[in-house]
Amino acid sequence: MINQRACKNCRTITDQAKCPRCGGEVSREWQGYLVVIDPERSEIAKKMGIHDAGRYALRVK
Fold first, then answer.
1. 53 and 38 in contact (C-beta within 8 Å)?
2. Cβ neighbours of residue 47 under 8 Å, at least 6 residues apart?
3. CATH class, range 5-60
4. pTM
5. Contact 60, 27 (CB under 8 A)
6. Helix or strand (DSSP H, E) at 50
7. Which of 1, 26, 2 is nearest to 16 (CA)?
8. Beta strand pairing status for 5-7 and 13-14?
9. Above 90 in pLDDT, residue 41?
């Protein structure tokens, strides 16, 4: 996971300079990793407010 960044708004993990999902600012300081495959059936995705499948950080600084 070299050069991986997480969006400060939606927590999407990316290697780009801006978030491809919401266009928000990204940070290199993040912790935890969550892969959501089926957000409709995932209790964790519901609690985090995630509606799309993808890779997400649990905490972003």
1. yes
2. none
3. mainly beta
4. 0.88
5. yes
6. none
7. 26
8. antiparallel
9. yes
